[in-house]
Amino acid sequence: MKRFAAFVVGAVFGLTLSWSGMTNPDVLRDGLLFRDAYLMLFFASALGTAFIGMRVLKVLQAKALLTGEPVSWTTVKPERRHVVGSVLFGIGWAVADVCPGPIAAQLGQGVPWALATLVGLVGGLVLFSRRSAVTSG
Amino acid sequence: MDDQLAWYVGGPVLGLCVVALRWLLNERLGATRAWADAVAARFGSVHAWLLVGLIFGGVVFGLVASPLDGYGWLTDTFTGGTQWVIVPVLIVSGALIGYGARLASGCTSGNGLSGNAALSPASLVATGTFFGTAIAVSFAIEAVI
């Protein structure tokens, strides 16, 4: 049931990303070049909605519907890795005009170019887990 | 579905997905975490199933909408005999996206939406950094091509 719930949320997320043009590199690029306000308005309204929704959950002291645990989260202090990682991510995002969620949705749509991005993405993730395994152990 | 969904519909729906995952499972929605769990073969993880959902959402859209025509500035710039260049460019970009987002503990969804909605200072810093970098790189590409 928990996995099915996550699947459904993912499916709505993936369909919305696709329908909003987040899987279309031209939409991303026009947004990042400020030629079109869509990307920024889309992102800001998504963030505003998520922010209000999370506040409501907190005020109501909600319990997670499928696990019964109290809804709670922790915040993280900024470290160097958040900046360095985001610079690397930002470069890749701007060149390929796609981020991890839309890569998955592009693969679902059958966008052939997404296979190349996928190869790099998996390589990057594997490299990261190997490197962190070495540093921590 | 060939018309782009209005931002004031799509944005809030996306935001509600973040709230839904928190309310249903008390989990942070993040596509990078979803990919990382799937790549590590953690199929019991709800995040890996979120990824399956993301792909499925794309499949549904692909069935009803027209396919993408080319691939943005890359297919506009590299045409004919130089089109192969796009493949290594996308592979390197994908690697930067995967490694960078993991290092920063999140991408546009994990840090940009979920982390900022929780007012996590690390996510605010990460989001400012990746938006700033992406805007600068986009203008740099525009200046060169």
Automatic annotation (TrEMBL), chain A:
Q: Which domain of life is it from?
A: Bacteria
Which residue windows are transmembrane per the record? 36-57, 83-105, 111-128
Give the record's keywords alphabetically: Membrane, Transmembrane, Transmembrane helix
- Identify this protein by name: YeeE/YedE thiosulfate transporter family protein
TrEMBL record, chain B:
Q: Which InterPro entries match?
A: Sulf_transp_TsuA/YedE (IPR007272)
Q: Which UniProt keywords apply?
A: Cell inner membrane, Cell membrane, Membrane, Transmembrane, Transmembrane helix, Transport
Transmembrane portions of the chain? 6-25, 46-65, 85-105, 117-141
- Record carries keyword Magnesium: no
Its domain of life reads Bacteria
The way it spans or sits in the membrane comes to: Multi-pass membrane protein
Its annotated compartments are: Cell inner membrane
One GO cellular component from the entry?
Answer: plasma membrane
Q: Which PANTHER family match?
A: INNER MEMBRANE PROTEIN YEDE, SULPHUR TRANSPORT DOMAIN-CONTAINING PROTEIN
Family in the record: Belongs to the TsuA/YedE (TC 9.B.102) family.
Q: In its UniProt entry, what is this protein called?
A: YeeE/YedE family protein
Q: Source taxonomy lineage?
A: Bacteria, Bacillati, Actinomycetota, Thermoleophilia, Solirubrobacterales
